[in-house]
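Lab notebook: predicted structure, single chain.

Context: the supervisor wants predicted structures on file for every construct in the current expression panel, including those that have not yet been purified. This is the next one on the list. No modifications to the sequence; it matches the entry in the shared construct table.
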Amino acid sequence: MNIRSFSQLKQDAKNVLSGKYWYSFGVYVILSTASYIISMIASSIMTVPVSGLLSALLASCHSQSAEFLAAVTVLITSAVGVVVMIIASLVILTPLETGLIKFFINETTGTHDMYDLLFVFKNRMGNVVLIGFLKNLYVFLWSLLLIVPGIVKSYEYSMISYIIAENPSLDRKRAFEISKALTDGNKLKIFLFSLSFIGWILLACLTCGIGMMFLAPYMQASFTQLYIDLKSQAIENGSVSAEEFIYIGI
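Prediction complete. Output recorded below exactly as produced.
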């Protein structure tokens, strides 16, 4: 099977969004709000008890000790914020982002629902969180070698979120294998497809990022169309089976 042209993928995405764009936009608003709240918690509320405790210690110390503890305060509060952000991203944002992808996949067949966002929380959440964590970890580790290997691996693993959105019970090793099968020989195409949105992204940046909220549903719907083609191609050439994308449930 040949992958559709970029213009056709985008046109089909527009067709999918036709008449329900604002519904899709609303799903993105929910996800963005959750992300913003988690970020605020990580940067402020969760660090207040630690800062308060160390500030009390500072008041009772000599100046030299106070300077040392001041530095420790900054390090600890920063570390707490980072840890909270990582944990919250894993257990809240990863399931929500996977649910968002499921929403857009279902949207192509007209079976989407706002509750798709919560799908992972009720279906193999632990497995989805672990796979999401490993994906980010592997990309990070590859990036430590050189920038290019990290970029290549990011594209190789780029379909994992789509795969587990369809089948969250998939074995983690197999999830990586399937993503590799889908992207094998197609990494450059995926990169160029991403690059084809650069004009819209630059225009969105002129609105201080607000425009990205309106652009995001269109981009996600377009990449969902690309995923559908990559999956069909891999099934056709026998590197994966259609059954692996079907979630049976508990």
